[in-house]
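Appendix C reproduces, verbatim, an entry submitted by the partner laboratory led by Prof. M.T., so that reviewers can inspect both the input and the predicted structure.
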Amino acid sequence: MKVINPENPLSEEAREVVRALARRQRDANGILMTAMNYVGGQVEDGLKLLPAPVRAQIEKAAKSALEKSYSVAAKSRQGPLQNVVATERMNRLLGTLTGALGGAGGLPTALAELPVATTVIFRSIQSVAETYGEDPSTEETRVECLRVFGAGGPMGEDDGIDTTFIGARIGLSGAAVHGLIAKVAPRFATVLSQKLASQAVPILGAAAGAGTNYAFIGYYTEMAHVHFGLRAAGRTYDADQVADAFHEELARLKSPVVA
């Protein structure tokens, strides 16, 4: 059931907050593009290096990594070090380290590192959710974290965050979760293809893996701010008005007359 607040229309102040989130999404795309520039032509060449069977397995690997991280991320936030390891800085550090280790051995170690990197990203998204008043340990919030992975990336025609569910709830059955993962996995796989390509060359892949992991965590963290920021606005104001204001600003930002 969609939750809206028709008696509390979007104020101009709130509208500006939503516009800022649209700008944040636009700027987040630059983070991944910076990573692609960092590895240079290695990405394009690396994609050619990926064997056909590996390219076919990337979506399957993405789905498996999301399923594992969905379960592991909540548990990894428990314990005496929770406040330390839950910080964005620590998540980026862990992601950079695992990316370097994953790329050191080329494609085999890069594939093995995927579940770890995905869990680190998931944890970072959970931390953002918490800053917007959501409980990162609940299944509902973890489902919303999964949605962030569906933001895709700037490598194709992608509108980023899906605002369909700003004021909506879905069933939290196992089937619903698996269905969402199946929907999100193809978009996440698109990003993973770039990551694996950059790590395909042993030794050189270590530097590329560290750089791309750092950038990917930054990208999904920014998209998490957009997603949960919109959800927070949707809890206070009319959810349809929030979505409309967001898309209006995105359209304006894509206009050639906008600097």
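DSSP finds ten helices and no strands in the chain. Additional entries are available on request from the coordinating office.
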